[in-house]
Amino acid sequence: MSFLFPAFLAGALAVAIPIVLHFARREAAPRVPFSDIRFLQRVPLMQARRRRIREWLLLALRIAALLLLALAFARPFFDATGLAGRPVTIVAVDRSFSMSLPGRFEQARAAARAAIAEAPPGHLVGLVTFDEQARVAAAPAADRAAAVAALARAETGFGATRYGAALAAAARSIGSREGRIVVVTDLQRAGWEAAGAGSAPPGVSVRTVDVGAAGPNLAVTALEIGPAGAAAVVVNAGVQPRSSTVALRVDGTVLDSAAVTLEAGATTVGFDAPLPRAGVLEVAVDDPGGVPADDRRYHLLDPPAPLAIVFVTAGGRSGAGAFYLERALLAAGDDSPFVVRRLEPAGISPAALDGVAAVLLLETAGLGRSARGQLAAYVESGGGLLIAAGPRLDPALVAEFVGAGSTPTAPPPGGDGALRWSVTATRHPLFETFEGQAGTLGQVRFRQAMRVDGADGRVLAAFSDGGPALVERTAGRGRVLVFASDLNNEWNDFPRQPTFVPFVHEVVRYLGRQRQPARERLVAAAPPGVDPRPGVVIEPASGRALVINVDPRESDLARLTADEFLSRIRPSAVPGSAAGSEPVDAAGREAEQRYWWYLLLAVAVVLVAESWLGRSAA
In 3-state terms, what secondary structure has residue 495? Predict the structure, then answer.
């Protein structure tokens, strides 16, 4: 048996206290001469003997309680392996795709085998492989052959470098013991920039094994689709210009290709070929001898699933307050990117809002406290809510979601008797589609508006009298937009302006962005059950197609020195044992067995018995 905190065994010395008290309280009855003992009651000898037995039992129970308590605090455990407490060497091997240059990972394997062989005698040796996630390939063991065999099976992947994940996994395997971590890597600077810093527990040293600088590499780091066609960003990581061919493919068929000279750094390569409406678009650069994983990038041309939009109107009908908005969202006919349905306030529920990308609140008649709470919960969970002022909207609702609102009031008289508005946040995603022409929105004339307090949100647009016209506020993972006038040609002429339809579309897309399923993911965010490699995949849970690309930050092959690497490591608390690996350290063994709990239970039983016996002896 071993103990996690053997110093607590000194508490067993407390057993001297009940022993001393037991003998100190014993009284020797003095002999007293009596002239006549005929009147004294006879005391059976057996009763005195029973009392003495009870006293010895009480003493034994008190001693047992103190001993059991000391054992419980010392945290005993059994270690059949004999490995607990032995120091550990963990070799962490970088398997990110920057290590996939020809011959590079073989060099890393050789360096890792040398690190395993050079581990001090008496050390347990384990192996961790890492990219964006770290995996315990071989748990710490006295037999180093297990780590060597796991190293032989290791291969590079498509993830990016994350040193913090490697150090965390290695530290969990070491646990509360002393040890060392050997990181075999190309010392890529991007591996720290994503996480900031790493940590290692006290008593654990860290050193690096550098596999050397990477050679020349070309990488496709971005792919954009615009009205003019496709454009790709190709990065030349070297210092000399390189000639190469960049090809544009759809479902494996070449649509266009260009012979280009790529200067050091990033170059944008455009393609004029018309693109089909559906298919998997791929841009690939010819880069023999470079990193293969970042030579291509994918994009899904298939139109996204329509966004589900809900109008909240009195009676659930397409009333006067929703007519122009509904026509704007369905302007594209059968090809509309939106699916619109109406909902009455009393029908608002989690089931009714399930799968809804954005809610447009136009009328509040019948919107009770429960429905308002459901809307607030919907926004907190990532939904988007647009509140448009109008004659059928209760201004008190604005106060609940954005700030203080007041009843609509007519604007002060101006030259034409109406207010204008202008965009104050020109860089906001809502106005990207106007490409610097957000001033065209200023042609709208507002005859009436709600005074909205924008102190608790961000004012995106303002009226000519300085009052907020469009206010945004985030709540949880969702967003709320408040438009301080109506969107139905009652308080303004906005629905008759050419900017109305694109504005409405951008508002709905922006609000529904959180609820719109991702069509492109990086390797690290590949859905469960999907092979994490670049290309097009089918998500098992939904059956949707999406594309997976490598992290473009990994294509930046800038390096740091070993001293810079070590300067990012901070001391940390002692971690627990690694998930999925056998806990061979003392803390792991004790946590697995938890005998202290049974000892405390035995203390409670002994104290109950001592209390009962002491009461019966009184």
Answer: helix
List of residues 6+ apart from 58 with CB closer than 8 A: 610, 613, 614, 617
Strands 478-483 and 384-388: parallel
Structural domain that includes position 58 = 2-74+596-617
Q: Tokens 């990193």 identify what position? A: 291
State the pLDDT confidence band at 579, using cuts at 50, 70 and 90.
very low
Q: By percentage, how much of the chain surpasses pLDDT 90?
A: 38
Range 211-215 average pLDDT = 86
The enclosing domain of 444 has a CATH number of 3.40.50.880
Kindly tell me if the per-residue pLDDT of 580 is higher than 50.
Answer: no
Query: What's the CA gap between 485 and 406, in Å, rounded?
Result: 12
Within a domain: 590: no
Adjacent-strand bridge partners of 285: 246
Identify the three-state secondary structure at position 465: coil
- CB-based contact 408:449 (threshold 8 Å): yes
CB 384 within 8 A of CB 357: yes
Contacts of 438 (CB under 8 A, 6+ apart): 423, 426, 431
Weakest-pLDDT range from 344-348, 359-363, 379-383, 543-547: 344-348
Our CA dihedral for 481, 486, 487, 492, rounded to 10 degrees, sits at -130
For the whole prediction, is pTM greater than 0.85?
Answer: no
Provide the domain count of the chain: 4
Q: How many residues does the chain have?
A: 618
Cα separation, 30 vs 140, whole angstroms: 71
C-alpha to C-alpha distance for 319 and 362, rounded to whole angstroms:
10
Q: Please state, as a whole number, how many other Cβ atoms lie within 10 Å of the Cβ of residue 205.
A: 12
Hunting for tokens 């455990």 — which residue is that?
Answer: 77
